Amino acid sequence: MSFPRPKKLKSEDELYEYAVGALGRRMRTVAELKRLFRPRVELETEYGRTLVELIIRRLKDNGYLNDSQYAATYSSLRRDNQKFGKMRVITELKTRGVRADLIDKAVSSAYEGVREEKQARDYLRRKRLQKPKDRKQVARVFRHLARAGFGTKTIMTILKKWDVDDDTLSALESETA
Fold it and tell me: Which of 110, 30, 114 is nearest to 78 (CA)?
């Protein structure tokens, strides 16, 4: 079964309605919205590029599109709900097309006053990860925390408090270096 091609939108009103509908389903960045427009607008033409820029300007003027607000909300939600670390949030915002200066400001304000070790412990509790019993489980916990965006120093602190032997810790440290 093949899917039909997206309908080309030719007028400003059609494209604006499509954009408002897309933003109504979930918050998006300017870059994400431009990616959504690609199959619906011929961006090779001057008219298509101008139309997209016009719609984005209109959405920004009406307050529907704001990358700095998106980054701040996204950072705080990922911190509070998923218990992710700073590095994970920064990486995800970059993939969503948020500018680096907005990311730095949003993430630093969202994680201001947050102790990374406590955040990592909350993440482990949320994922129901227990104290590891062998080297394989230690590596698993290490990978989980690294993927969640916590620094090696924080991960090592947690593992040391769990009385993981020094040989295992040094092996993990050498892998990440």
Answer: 110
Q: pLDDT tens for residues 38-53? A: 988 988 889 889 999 9
Helices (H), 3-113: 12-25, 30-37, 46-61, 67-77, 86-95, 100-110
| DSSP conformational letter for 2 | P
Is 22 inside a domain boundary?
A: yes
Give the three-state DSSP class for 52.
helix
pTM of the model: 0.86
Helices 12-25 & 46-61 angle (0-180, nearest 10): 50
Find the domain containing 56 and state its range: 12-61
* In a domain? residue 131: yes
What is each CA distance from 164 to 32, 82, 128, in whole angstroms? 43, 26, 18
R_g of the chain computed on alpha carbons: 22
> Do 72 and 99 belong together in one domain?
yes
**73 near 27, Cβ under 8 Å?**
yes
